[in-house]
Amino acid sequence: xxxxxxxxxxxxxxxxxxxxxxxxxxxxxxxxxxxxxxxxxxxxxxxxxxxxxxxxxxxxxxxxxxxxxxxxxxxxxxxxxxxxxxxxxxxxxxxxxxxxxxxxxxxxxxxxxxxxxxxxxxxxxxxxxxxxxxxxxxxxxxxxxxxxxxxxxxxxxxxxxxxxxxxxxxxxxxxxxxxxxxxxxxxxxxxxxxxxxxxxxxxxxxxxxxxxxxxxxxxxxxxxxxxxxxxxxxxxxxxxxxxxxxxxxxxxxxxxxxxxxxxxxxxxxxxxxxxxxxxxxxxxxxxxxxxxxxxxxxxxxxxxxxxxxxxxxxxxxxxxxxxxxxxxxxxxxxxxxxxxxxxxxxxxxxxxxxxxxxxxxxxxxxxxxxxxxxxxxxxxxxxxxxxxxxxxxxxxxxxxxxxxxxxxxxxxxxxxxxxxxxxxxxxxxxxxxxxxxxxxxxxxxxxxxxxxxxxxxxxxxxxxxxxxxxxxxxxxxxxxxxxxxxxxxxxxxxxxxxxxxxxxxxxxxxxxxxxxxxxxxxxxxxxxxxxxxxxxxxxxxxxxxxxxxxxxxxxxxxxxxxxxxxxxxxxxxxxxxxxxxxxxxxxxxxxxxxxxxxxxxxxxxxxxxxxxxxxxxxxxxxxxxxxxxxxxxxxxxxxxxxxxxxxxxxxxxxxxxxxxxxxxxxxxxxxxxxxxxxxxxxx
Length: 683
Hints:
This protein is an alpha/beta fold and 683 residues long. 37% of the residues lie in helices and 14% in strands. Helix 10 links the parallel strand 5 and strand 6 (293-298).
């Protein structure tokens, strides 16, 4: 049986939907048909664009029910994390633009307030919806706005984040009128089931708790719910149908945790059963009580598409795929990803050193901890969506002599900044912070870009910060981090793949010996020492005014080398030196001094914002007196002070003016003082 046997030939109900108001008059039969058509609309579109996939398939019925019952955008519906909001986007007037999903100038893969008034709140990171809904609820009350509803849809992964508990604690205390829909699909981590110290179960005791509720109690239907609701709110539903049979209260044995936090717990409810979901939501909508409510629904990630239901990761995030089989298109490059290179380099270190352990915050697949976990399950720790806990957990490990590698996306490490400073850096504990997805990340857009870390980490005393230019350097820096016990160390690297032996030899100048193969073992680097990659020939740059240096950190080295060649091709007198700093802290001041003394122009290039590497170089040069005589011009190239939306990584670096042609243009303009404008990110 093909996966698309159930595919509708037409979508007559969905074709009538332009806004959520079009759902108001639909009967149950039409709502069910709409859900079927909507599910296939998502499948058909994502098969052509790629993107987050199975999360949206799991909330099709919930999305239909919410928009049928509530009056968005007056009623605020917040999706957490909002990669599950594809169905929401389609029925809120964006169906015609859905083929542009996660592309340049197209629809975002997440909710964005500037994209639609129906996107009440953006949530590319997790665990924020309950706080936002509570704030909206309080504001509406204080501003005497028409009584309406604030609904936070939060996944069982997102609710593991500490911020969700903080919000629930406050909501019960303040009696904020709000509805929290806990979407429980038993997929806490990505992917769930990675071997770790906790086994292969979801990385959350809360998930274990809610799972027990699901298996110990039958799904609560509307009749049971209505009877219990009547008992708790006797003045609320006096006209409830007296013919409803007697049912034992469905929440006596469950929901205790949420009730202790001040919520009225409803559930569990089958999140795919519109017959019960719709009337339950209607009763919750019409309640006049201010007590916050938690509706616990059980859904299946990937529901309705067999390949997703059967996949170990439920096809959470996919490339373009064949609908009939679910087979995803393979990348054209056969080069290994930097993430897999990191993971295997860490395995090498752990093989030789039993104190090496890996920690991730619900992202084993994205950080390579799934690879590490298969080799060393007892030394792999998935703490759930809890970056703050991950850092202090690692600090405690370091106190006792372990070598923790905390593997977190750069953008998510922002959430643990206080712990980096207070629990790790001030105490100078040797915690290894591995920041994947540094720089622009491509189609996930600004919520996932990792461009702040050089700036925010660079201000913290005791931190050593390094960034590899290629796959050989990545392996070397993993070995360096493992060997470094003098304090905390940061290794940040981008999303992408290795360059391969041919380019490493021809462009980067590596000598790979007779084998011509990329080394698989890393070597320990001297801390705070960079390297010169390219020098001009003796016939070039005979005078200082014709000599230029490009100093990079990270993978912009490739673009700098290309730019150097192009500049020299344009002028036979100009000589361009290219250097790789390797470290931002400590800065290789001897290398910086050498480049400043020998050249008339120094261009720094990084995959980070203002306040990062270039500013550290410029600050040193100013204090060192290198700028006093006016013979050195310094041009820092950084990511612009704008949020660059979804697109390919190449398109994003083009927009940021950080590709080879932009480095070339900066050099030529600075050398010749020509007045024409240089291509910048706004052009």
